[in-house]
Amino acid sequence: MGIWDSILPGGGRRFIKRKDSDAGEAGRALEELRGSLYNDFHTSEGARRQQQKLCGPIVALTFNFVVAVGIIMANKMVMGAVGFNFPVALSLIHYLFAFALMSVLKALYLLPIASPSKSTPFSSLFALGAVMSFSTGLANISLKHNSVGFYQMAKIAVTPTIVVAEFILFKKKVSLRKVSTLVVVSFGVAVATVTDLEFNFFGACVALAWIIPSAVNKILWSNLQQSGNWTALALMWKTTPITIFFFIVLMPLLDPPGLLSFSWDFKNSSTIIISALFGFLLQWSGALALGATSALAHVVLGQFKTIVIMLSGYLVFKSDPGFTSLCGAVIALAGMSVYTYLGMKESAANARRNSLNSRQNSHLKKAKAIVDGENPETKPMDSV
């Protein structure tokens, strides 16, 4: 201490204590920051709040729309240029890639896997993983054996299926104005795609078998995230192994033979990996959109993607879908605009109702405290 006394006469001890105090405050601040980050990303409530904060309905739907357009181009390269005609095997590769990527994120502590598993029965997770495999696999097989127009016609049937299923399962009702708007949207999409209805008997059977799993898949994803406090990635982490298992079972039944004899050179493998990356992003963005909106909103988004792609081909690439298809596209876009407006109006009304209910509950608690003889503005002190 002699050196410190000579440099800082009479203040050496105070300087060291102040440094120790600053170090202690910095350490406490660091611990608080670490605790806050842990609560934000490694607990179900914190991760759910961060997902809602960073990925609202508009961001989630936009993200899903962009990725969906990208995977259409990637899968066209896989099925066309590469010649990989194994739709269920391609879906299996997508989910294996997604599980491997999530495993890396988990190992780096970047995956918020904490989940309220005690409140969600395993049967719900198993059902979601099973219907997801059937929905994805049957969709790819339908696209292989049917034209895009017939695939979209089958997708229109998903909308009333969701309305009926949500009413049966959760007693959820849809307003008459929304039902009318959905009818207009479905009619517009049907008119826009009616000129491209190429299919065969097997393809038609696959398309019809795909409708119910697709509707149930969207309903379960939306319901589990909104009522079960799940995040998109946490739910994907739990259900992806189940989906992979069902893909392994379905692959020899629905895929043609010849997978092992496929030319797995660098070019083909790279194209399939790019498709798998888009597949992971599509699954993630779709889960985010379903958690932020609803199953019906996600179906309307899918129909919006169809119309936008068709109009883009007409405006950018000078394709000629025909006057009838263009009229149907305009009708569908008008119906989607009205549906979006009604959804935003309904969400604002629900927010105001929830705010009013919270204020009323607060007033009731204060009134009860006054009746019980307590001052609501003060808290009783513990006697020493």
UniProtKB/TrEMBL annotation:
It comes from Zea mays (Maize). InterPro entries: Sugar_P_trans_dom, TPT_transporter. Residues 62-339 form the Sugar phosphate transporter domain. It is a multi-pass membrane protein. Residues 355-384 are annotated as: Disordered. It comes from the Eukaryota. GO terms for cellular component: Golgi apparatus; membrane. It is found in: Membrane. Pfam families: TPT. GO terms for biological process: transmembrane transport. The chain crosses the membrane at residues 54-74, 86-110, 122-143, 149-170, 201-220, 232-252, 272-292, 299-317, 323-342. The keyword Transmembrane helix applies. Its main location: membrane. GO terms for molecular function: antiporter activity; UDP-xylose transmembrane transporter activity. This is Nucleotide/sugar transporter family protein.
